[in-house]
Design a protein that fits this description.
This is Threonine synthase. The protein is of the alpha/beta class and 433 residues long. It has helices at 15-21, 40-44, 51-63, 69-79, 107-121, 139-148, 167-174, 189-201, 218-221, 226-235, 252-262, 279-286, 310-316, 321-325, 335-349, 355-370, 388-395, 403-409, 421-430; strands at 2-5, 13-14, 30-32, 86-90, 93-97, 130-135, 154-161, 180-185, 210-211, 242-247, 267-274, 328-332, 375-380, 416-418. The structure holds pyridoxal-5'-phosphate.
Length: 433
Amino acid sequence: MNYFSLNHNAPVASFKQAVIQGLAPDKGLYFPESIQPLDKEFFRNIDTFSEEEIAFEAIKQFALSDIPEADLKQIIKDTLSFDFPLVNIESNISSLELFHGPTMAFKDVGARFMARCLGYFNRHNSSSTVTVLVATSGDTGGAVANGFLNVKGVNVVILYPSGKVSDIQEKQLTTLGANIRALEVNGTFDDCQDMVKNAFLDEDLKSVKLTSANSINIARWLPQMFYFFFAYRALKKQGKEVVFSVPSGNFGNICAGMMAHKLGLPIRHFVAATNINDIVPNYLKSGHYEPRASRSTISNAMDVGNPSNFIRIQQLSGNDLNSLKSIFSSYSFTDEETRTAMKKVYDTCGYICDPHGAVGYLGLKRFLDEHPGYSGVFLETAHPVKFLDTVETTLNTKVNIPEQIQKIMNRDKVSLKIDTYKELKQFLSINPA
Ligand SMILES: *Cc1c(COP(=O)(O)O)cnc(C)c1O
Protein backbone atom coordinates (compact mmCIF):
# COMPACT_ATOMS: atom_id res chain seq x y z
CA MET A 1 0.00 0.00 0.00
CA ASN A 2 1.20 3.47 -0.85
CA TYR A 3 0.14 6.68 0.82
CA PHE A 4 -0.33 10.05 -0.82
CA SER A 5 -0.19 13.49 0.76
CA LEU A 6 -3.52 15.27 1.21
CA ASN A 7 -1.72 18.45 0.12
CA HIS A 8 -1.09 16.68 -3.23
CA ASN A 9 2.41 18.08 -3.59
CA ALA A 10 4.70 15.25 -2.50
CA PRO A 11 5.68 11.82 -3.86
CA VAL A 12 3.73 8.80 -2.62
CA ALA A 13 5.28 6.95 0.30
CA SER A 14 5.33 3.34 1.43
CA PHE A 15 3.91 2.42 4.85
CA LYS A 16 7.45 2.42 6.23
CA GLN A 17 8.34 5.82 4.76
CA ALA A 18 5.07 7.37 5.92
CA VAL A 19 5.54 6.05 9.46
CA ILE A 20 9.13 7.26 9.69
CA GLN A 21 8.36 10.68 8.20
CA GLY A 22 5.10 11.31 10.06
CA LEU A 23 4.08 14.21 7.83
CA ALA A 24 4.68 14.34 4.06
CA PRO A 25 7.39 16.76 2.85
CA ASP A 26 4.66 19.18 1.67
CA LYS A 27 3.33 19.13 5.29
CA GLY A 28 0.23 17.17 4.19
CA LEU A 29 -1.23 14.20 6.05
CA TYR A 30 -0.72 10.81 4.49
CA PHE A 31 -3.77 8.89 3.24
CA PRO A 32 -3.94 5.37 1.73
CA GLU A 33 -4.15 5.26 -2.08
CA SER A 34 -6.92 2.66 -1.99
CA ILE A 35 -9.24 1.15 0.62
CA GLN A 36 -10.49 -2.38 0.04
CA PRO A 37 -13.61 -3.41 2.01
CA LEU A 38 -13.33 -6.69 3.90
CA ASP A 39 -15.33 -9.77 2.99
CA LYS A 40 -19.00 -9.71 4.10
CA GLU A 41 -18.44 -13.23 5.37
CA PHE A 42 -15.90 -11.86 7.85
CA PHE A 43 -18.49 -9.58 9.47
CA ARG A 44 -21.09 -12.34 9.54
CA ASN A 45 -18.68 -14.57 11.44
CA ILE A 46 -16.90 -11.91 13.45
CA ASP A 47 -17.83 -13.56 16.76
CA THR A 48 -15.70 -16.56 15.84
CA PHE A 49 -12.49 -14.48 15.59
CA SER A 50 -10.17 -13.42 18.41
CA GLU A 51 -9.29 -9.76 18.97
CA GLU A 52 -5.86 -10.34 17.46
CA GLU A 53 -7.34 -11.98 14.36
CA ILE A 54 -9.82 -9.12 13.92
CA ALA A 55 -7.09 -6.51 14.28
CA PHE A 56 -4.94 -8.29 11.71
CA GLU A 57 -7.81 -8.38 9.20
CA ALA A 58 -8.45 -4.67 9.77
CA ILE A 59 -4.88 -3.49 9.33
CA LYS A 60 -3.30 -5.97 6.94
CA GLN A 61 -3.94 -4.12 3.66
CA PHE A 62 -2.29 -1.01 5.12
CA ALA A 63 0.92 -2.52 6.46
CA LEU A 64 1.66 -5.95 4.93
CA SER A 65 3.71 -4.48 2.08
CA ASP A 66 6.36 -3.42 4.61
CA ILE A 67 5.91 -5.78 7.56
CA PRO A 68 5.68 -9.54 7.00
CA GLU A 69 2.62 -11.35 8.32
CA ALA A 70 4.29 -13.04 11.30
CA ASP A 71 5.90 -9.79 12.48
CA LEU A 72 2.70 -7.79 12.02
CA LYS A 73 0.81 -10.37 14.07
CA GLN A 74 3.41 -10.11 16.82
CA ILE A 75 3.16 -6.29 16.80
CA ILE A 76 -0.64 -6.57 17.14
CA LYS A 77 -0.30 -9.08 19.96
CA ASP A 78 2.08 -6.80 21.89
CA THR A 79 -0.14 -3.78 21.24
CA LEU A 80 -3.34 -5.41 22.51
CA SER A 81 -2.04 -6.57 25.87
CA PHE A 82 -5.01 -5.18 27.81
CA ASP A 83 -8.83 -5.28 27.75
CA PHE A 84 -11.43 -3.17 25.94
CA PRO A 85 -14.56 -3.78 28.01
CA LEU A 86 -17.96 -2.57 26.90
CA VAL A 87 -19.93 -1.62 30.02
CA ASN A 88 -23.70 -1.23 29.77
CA ILE A 89 -24.79 1.77 31.84
CA GLU A 90 -28.35 2.51 30.68
CA SER A 91 -30.70 0.78 28.30
CA ASN A 92 -29.13 1.02 24.83
CA ILE A 93 -26.11 2.97 26.13
CA SER A 94 -22.71 1.43 26.75
CA SER A 95 -19.31 2.84 27.61
CA LEU A 96 -16.42 1.44 25.61
CA GLU A 97 -13.61 1.68 28.14
CA LEU A 98 -10.35 2.44 26.37
CA PHE A 99 -8.39 3.17 29.54
CA HIS A 100 -7.10 -0.20 30.64
CA GLY A 101 -3.67 0.25 29.08
CA PRO A 102 -0.46 1.24 30.87
CA THR A 103 -1.11 5.03 30.90
CA MET A 104 -4.90 4.66 31.20
CA ALA A 105 -5.83 6.60 28.06
CA PHE A 106 -6.85 5.38 24.60
CA LYS A 107 -3.65 6.79 23.09
CA ASP A 108 -1.84 3.72 24.45
CA VAL A 109 -3.14 1.69 21.49
CA GLY A 110 -1.75 3.96 18.78
CA ALA A 111 1.47 4.68 20.65
CA ARG A 112 2.22 1.01 21.30
CA PHE A 113 1.51 0.03 17.71
CA MET A 114 3.61 2.84 16.26
CA ALA A 115 6.50 2.17 18.63
CA ARG A 116 6.62 -1.45 17.61
CA CYS A 117 6.48 -0.59 13.91
CA LEU A 118 9.42 1.79 14.31
CA GLY A 119 11.27 -0.83 16.35
CA TYR A 120 10.69 -3.31 13.53
CA PHE A 121 11.91 -0.91 10.84
CA ASN A 122 15.03 -0.24 12.91
CA ARG A 123 15.73 -3.86 13.83
CA HIS A 124 19.06 -4.05 11.96
CA ASN A 125 20.34 -0.55 12.70
CA SER A 126 21.48 -0.94 16.26
CA SER A 127 24.11 1.75 15.69
CA SER A 128 21.76 4.26 14.12
CA THR A 129 18.83 5.29 16.22
CA VAL A 130 15.84 7.53 15.58
CA THR A 131 14.73 10.15 18.03
CA VAL A 132 11.03 10.62 18.57
CA LEU A 133 10.48 14.25 19.54
CA VAL A 134 7.10 15.05 21.00
CA ALA A 135 5.43 18.00 22.69
CA THR A 136 2.64 17.20 25.10
CA SER A 137 -0.09 18.99 27.01
CA GLY A 138 -0.67 15.85 29.06
CA ASP A 139 -1.82 12.49 27.74
CA THR A 140 0.12 12.11 24.50
CA GLY A 141 3.53 12.29 26.19
CA GLY A 142 2.74 9.57 28.71
CA ALA A 143 1.34 7.18 26.12
CA VAL A 144 4.26 7.77 23.77
CA ALA A 145 6.83 7.44 26.56
CA ASN A 146 5.31 4.22 27.76
CA GLY A 147 4.76 2.81 24.28
CA PHE A 148 8.38 3.40 23.29
CA LEU A 149 9.98 2.34 26.57
CA ASN A 150 12.87 -0.03 25.84
CA VAL A 151 12.07 -0.22 22.11
CA LYS A 152 15.42 -0.88 20.46
CA GLY A 153 16.72 1.81 18.10
CA VAL A 154 14.36 4.49 19.33
CA ASN A 155 15.01 7.32 21.77
CA VAL A 156 12.23 9.57 23.00
CA VAL A 157 12.50 13.23 23.96
CA ILE A 158 9.35 14.73 25.48
CA LEU A 159 8.77 18.45 25.94
CA TYR A 160 6.14 19.51 28.44
CA PRO A 161 5.14 22.87 29.91
CA SER A 162 6.45 23.22 33.46
CA GLY A 163 3.66 23.36 36.05
CA LYS A 164 0.91 22.89 33.48
CA VAL A 165 0.37 19.13 33.48
CA SER A 166 -1.26 17.21 36.32
CA ASP A 167 0.92 15.47 38.94
CA ILE A 168 -0.02 12.06 37.60
CA GLN A 169 0.74 13.08 34.04
CA GLU A 170 4.11 14.55 35.05
CA LYS A 171 5.10 11.35 36.84
CA GLN A 172 4.12 9.36 33.76
CA LEU A 173 6.50 11.49 31.69
CA THR A 174 9.47 11.80 33.98
CA THR A 175 9.94 8.55 35.86
CA LEU A 176 10.50 5.91 33.20
CA GLY A 177 14.23 6.38 32.56
CA ALA A 178 15.92 4.11 29.97
CA ASN A 179 15.43 5.55 26.46
CA ILE A 180 12.92 8.21 27.57
CA ARG A 181 14.00 11.74 28.47
CA ALA A 182 11.79 14.60 29.61
CA LEU A 183 12.50 18.29 29.04
CA GLU A 184 10.53 20.63 31.27
CA VAL A 185 9.94 23.82 29.35
CA ASN A 186 9.53 27.13 31.10
CA GLY A 187 6.53 28.18 28.99
CA THR A 188 3.22 26.97 27.59
CA PHE A 189 2.24 23.96 25.50
CA ASP A 190 2.34 26.20 22.41
CA ASP A 191 5.97 27.08 23.24
CA CYS A 192 6.80 23.36 23.43
CA GLN A 193 5.11 22.74 20.11
CA ASP A 194 6.97 25.65 18.48
CA MET A 195 10.29 24.25 19.67
CA VAL A 196 9.44 20.86 18.19
CA LYS A 197 8.49 22.45 14.87
CA ASN A 198 11.74 24.44 14.83
CA ALA A 199 13.76 21.30 15.42
CA PHE A 200 12.11 19.50 12.49
CA LEU A 201 12.96 22.39 10.17
CA ASP A 202 16.50 22.96 11.51
CA GLU A 203 19.17 22.08 8.90
CA ASP A 204 21.79 21.83 11.66
CA LEU A 205 19.91 18.89 13.15
CA LYS A 206 19.77 16.86 9.90
CA SER A 207 22.25 14.33 11.31
CA VAL A 208 19.90 13.62 14.23
CA LYS A 209 17.16 11.41 12.78
CA LEU A 210 14.02 13.05 14.16
CA THR A 211 10.49 11.73 13.85
CA SER A 212 7.15 12.72 15.35
CA ALA A 213 4.63 10.60 17.23
CA ASN A 214 1.47 12.66 17.30
CA SER A 215 -1.86 11.56 15.90
CA ILE A 216 -1.10 12.58 12.33
CA ASN A 217 1.19 9.55 12.04
CA ILE A 218 -0.60 6.74 10.19
CA ALA A 219 0.79 4.16 12.62
CA ARG A 220 -0.94 5.94 15.48
CA TRP A 221 -4.13 6.63 13.59
CA LEU A 222 -4.99 3.30 11.89
CA PRO A 223 -4.75 0.87 14.86
CA GLN A 224 -7.48 2.93 16.55
CA MET A 225 -9.86 1.10 14.20
CA PHE A 226 -9.44 -2.07 16.23
CA TYR A 227 -11.71 -1.29 19.16
CA PHE A 228 -14.61 -0.21 16.93
CA PHE A 229 -14.56 -3.77 15.57
CA PHE A 230 -14.37 -5.22 19.09
CA ALA A 231 -17.37 -3.18 20.28
CA TYR A 232 -19.36 -4.15 17.20
CA ARG A 233 -18.59 -7.81 17.86
CA ALA A 234 -19.79 -7.49 21.44
CA LEU A 235 -23.09 -5.86 20.40
CA LYS A 236 -23.84 -7.86 17.29
CA LYS A 237 -26.04 -10.45 18.98
CA GLN A 238 -28.47 -7.72 20.14
CA GLY A 239 -29.36 -7.29 16.48
CA LYS A 240 -29.66 -3.50 16.63
CA GLU A 241 -27.79 -1.01 14.51
CA VAL A 242 -24.87 0.59 16.29
CA VAL A 243 -24.09 4.29 16.75
CA PHE A 244 -20.74 5.48 18.15
CA SER A 245 -20.15 8.77 19.91
CA VAL A 246 -16.51 9.82 20.13
CA PRO A 247 -15.24 12.68 22.31
CA SER A 248 -13.10 14.52 19.78
CA GLY A 249 -10.22 17.00 19.75
CA ASN A 250 -7.91 16.35 16.84
CA PHE A 251 -10.50 13.93 15.38
CA GLY A 252 -8.02 11.09 14.91
CA ASN A 253 -10.01 8.59 16.96
CA ILE A 254 -13.35 9.15 15.22
CA CYS A 255 -11.58 9.20 11.86
CA ALA A 256 -10.28 5.70 12.61
CA GLY A 257 -13.86 4.61 13.31
CA MET A 258 -14.91 5.99 9.95
CA MET A 259 -12.09 4.08 8.31
CA ALA A 260 -13.44 0.89 9.96
CA HIS A 261 -16.81 1.76 8.44
CA LYS A 262 -15.14 2.14 5.02
CA LEU A 263 -13.81 -1.38 5.48
CA GLY A 264 -17.42 -2.51 5.80
CA LEU A 265 -17.95 -2.52 9.56
CA PRO A 266 -21.74 -2.09 9.89
CA ILE A 267 -21.91 1.16 11.86
CA ARG A 268 -25.06 3.22 11.41
CA HIS A 269 -23.81 6.65 12.48
CA PHE A 270 -20.96 8.56 14.13
CA VAL A 271 -21.30 11.40 16.57
CA ALA A 272 -18.30 13.65 17.14
CA ALA A 273 -18.83 15.20 20.56
CA THR A 274 -16.75 18.28 21.34
CA ASN A 275 -16.37 20.78 24.16
CA ILE A 276 -16.75 24.50 23.36
CA ASN A 277 -14.01 24.17 20.76
CA ASP A 278 -16.77 23.75 18.21
CA ILE A 279 -15.10 24.21 14.83
CA VAL A 280 -16.53 20.99 13.39
CA PRO A 281 -20.12 21.35 14.71
CA ASN A 282 -20.10 24.86 13.23
CA TYR A 283 -18.82 23.57 9.94
CA LEU A 284 -21.67 21.05 9.70
CA LYS A 285 -24.16 23.85 10.33
CA SER A 286 -22.69 26.58 8.13
CA GLY A 287 -20.51 24.78 5.56
CA HIS A 288 -17.62 27.07 6.56
CA TYR A 289 -14.55 25.60 8.19
CA GLU A 290 -13.12 28.30 10.45
CA PRO A 291 -10.24 27.30 12.74
CA ARG A 292 -9.78 29.39 15.88
CA ALA A 293 -7.38 29.61 18.82
CA SER A 294 -8.35 26.89 21.29
CA ARG A 295 -10.20 27.68 24.52
CA SER A 296 -9.49 25.93 27.85
CA THR A 297 -12.01 23.48 29.26
CA ILE A 298 -12.19 20.66 31.83
CA SER A 299 -11.88 18.16 28.95
CA ASN A 300 -8.50 19.66 28.07
CA ALA A 301 -7.24 16.86 25.82
CA MET A 302 -9.88 18.12 23.36
CA ASP A 303 -8.93 21.81 23.50
CA VAL A 304 -8.07 21.99 19.82
CA GLY A 305 -8.88 24.93 17.58
CA ASN A 306 -7.85 23.39 14.27
CA PRO A 307 -8.41 19.62 14.32
CA SER A 308 -5.64 18.15 12.21
CA ASN A 309 -7.40 14.91 11.20
CA PHE A 310 -10.57 16.55 9.94
CA ILE A 311 -9.11 16.69 6.46
CA ARG A 312 -8.95 12.87 6.49
CA ILE A 313 -12.62 12.70 7.44
CA GLN A 314 -13.46 14.93 4.50
CA GLN A 315 -11.41 12.71 2.22
CA LEU A 316 -13.25 9.63 3.52
CA SER A 317 -16.58 11.22 2.58
CA GLY A 318 -15.46 12.24 -0.89
CA ASN A 319 -15.10 15.89 0.18
CA ASP A 320 -18.88 16.19 0.08
CA LEU A 321 -20.67 17.81 3.02
CA ASN A 322 -24.02 16.11 2.39
CA SER A 323 -22.48 12.70 2.12
CA LEU A 324 -20.57 13.40 5.36
CA LYS A 325 -23.77 14.43 7.14
CA SER A 326 -25.49 11.17 6.20
CA ILE A 327 -23.10 9.26 8.47
CA PHE A 328 -21.68 11.89 10.82
CA SER A 329 -23.11 14.43 13.27
CA SER A 330 -21.30 16.73 15.65
CA TYR A 331 -22.44 18.56 18.78
CA SER A 332 -20.63 20.75 21.27
CA PHE A 333 -21.13 20.99 25.04
CA THR A 334 -20.09 23.42 27.76
CA ASP A 335 -18.18 22.52 30.93
CA GLU A 336 -21.36 23.04 32.91
CA GLU A 337 -23.26 20.54 30.76
CA THR A 338 -20.32 18.16 31.11
CA ARG A 339 -20.32 18.35 34.90
CA THR A 340 -24.10 17.90 35.00
CA ALA A 341 -23.79 14.79 32.85
CA MET A 342 -21.03 13.39 35.09
CA LYS A 343 -23.28 13.86 38.12
CA LYS A 344 -26.32 12.39 36.43
CA VAL A 345 -24.50 9.28 35.24
CA TYR A 346 -22.95 8.81 38.67
CA ASP A 347 -26.19 9.34 40.59
CA THR A 348 -28.41 7.21 38.37
CA CYS A 349 -26.03 4.46 37.22
CA GLY A 350 -23.20 4.60 39.77
CA TYR A 351 -20.77 4.99 36.88
CA ILE A 352 -17.90 7.48 36.96
CA CYS A 353 -17.16 9.23 33.66
CA ASP A 354 -14.10 11.36 33.14
CA PRO A 355 -14.88 14.77 31.57
CA HIS A 356 -14.03 13.51 28.04
CA GLY A 357 -16.23 10.43 28.33
CA ALA A 358 -19.01 12.64 29.69
CA VAL A 359 -18.86 14.79 26.55
CA GLY A 360 -19.13 11.58 24.51
CA TYR A 361 -22.12 10.50 26.59
CA LEU A 362 -23.83 13.85 25.98
CA GLY A 363 -23.30 13.59 22.23
CA LEU A 364 -24.77 10.10 22.19
CA LYS A 365 -27.83 11.15 24.22
CA ARG A 366 -28.45 14.10 21.90
CA PHE A 367 -28.40 11.85 18.86
CA LEU A 368 -30.50 9.04 20.39
CA ASP A 369 -33.13 11.54 21.56
CA GLU A 370 -33.75 12.37 17.92
CA HIS A 371 -33.08 8.88 16.54
CA PRO A 372 -34.30 6.23 18.99
CA GLY A 373 -33.98 2.49 18.52
CA TYR A 374 -30.24 2.17 18.07
CA SER A 375 -27.62 0.61 20.27
CA GLY A 376 -25.39 3.47 21.39
CA VAL A 377 -21.74 3.35 22.43
CA PHE A 378 -19.67 6.24 23.73
CA LEU A 379 -15.91 5.99 23.97
CA GLU A 380 -14.53 6.50 27.47
CA THR A 381 -11.11 7.77 26.43
CA ALA A 382 -9.39 8.16 29.81
CA HIS A 383 -9.65 6.75 33.31
CA PRO A 384 -11.31 9.24 35.72
CA VAL A 385 -8.18 9.20 37.87
CA LYS A 386 -6.34 11.11 35.15
CA PHE A 387 -8.61 14.08 35.82
CA LEU A 388 -8.80 13.52 39.55
CA ASP A 389 -9.48 17.08 40.71
CA THR A 390 -12.35 17.69 38.31
CA VAL A 391 -13.91 14.29 38.93
CA GLU A 392 -13.64 14.41 42.73
CA THR A 393 -14.95 17.97 43.08
CA THR A 394 -17.78 17.41 40.59
CA LEU A 395 -18.96 14.12 42.07
CA ASN A 396 -18.02 14.86 45.65
CA THR A 397 -16.48 11.44 46.00
CA LYS A 398 -13.04 9.82 46.15
CA VAL A 399 -11.69 7.95 43.14
CA ASN A 400 -9.63 4.84 43.83
CA ILE A 401 -6.10 5.20 42.50
CA PRO A 402 -5.35 2.15 40.35
CA GLU A 403 -2.21 0.13 40.91
CA GLN A 404 -0.33 1.27 37.80
CA ILE A 405 -0.74 4.92 38.87
CA GLN A 406 0.10 4.31 42.53
CA LYS A 407 3.34 2.66 41.49
CA ILE A 408 4.63 5.70 39.61
CA MET A 409 3.48 8.25 42.20
CA ASN A 410 6.26 7.02 44.49
CA ARG A 411 8.99 7.32 41.88
CA ASP A 412 11.33 10.30 41.60
CA LYS A 413 10.84 12.76 38.79
CA VAL A 414 13.81 13.22 36.46
CA SER A 415 13.64 16.14 34.04
CA LEU A 416 15.87 18.79 32.55
CA LYS A 417 14.58 22.35 32.68
CA ILE A 418 15.01 24.44 29.55
CA ASP A 419 13.97 27.96 28.57
CA THR A 420 14.87 28.38 24.92
CA TYR A 421 15.04 26.57 21.61
CA LYS A 422 18.82 26.95 21.72
CA GLU A 423 18.92 24.70 24.77
CA LEU A 424 16.78 22.07 23.04
CA LYS A 425 19.07 22.16 20.05
CA GLN A 426 22.14 21.78 22.21
CA PHE A 427 20.50 18.87 24.02
CA LEU A 428 19.70 17.07 20.77
CA SER A 429 23.17 17.73 19.32
CA ILE A 430 25.09 16.40 22.30
CA ASN A 431 22.69 13.53 22.80
CA PRO A 432 22.43 12.40 19.21
CA ALA A 433 20.30 9.34 19.43
C1 LIG B 1 -6.47 12.82 22.88
C2 LIG B 1 -7.72 12.66 23.67
C3 LIG B 1 -9.00 12.87 23.10
C4 LIG B 1 -9.20 13.37 21.68
O1 LIG B 1 -8.88 12.42 20.73
P1 LIG B 1 -8.68 12.86 19.19
O2 LIG B 1 -8.25 11.64 18.48
O3 LIG B 1 -7.61 13.93 19.22
O4 LIG B 1 -9.98 13.42 18.72
C5 LIG B 1 -10.12 12.61 23.88
N1 LIG B 1 -10.00 12.20 25.16
C6 LIG B 1 -8.80 12.00 25.75
C7 LIG B 1 -8.75 11.57 27.16
C8 LIG B 1 -7.61 12.22 25.03
O5 LIG B 1 -6.43 12.03 25.63
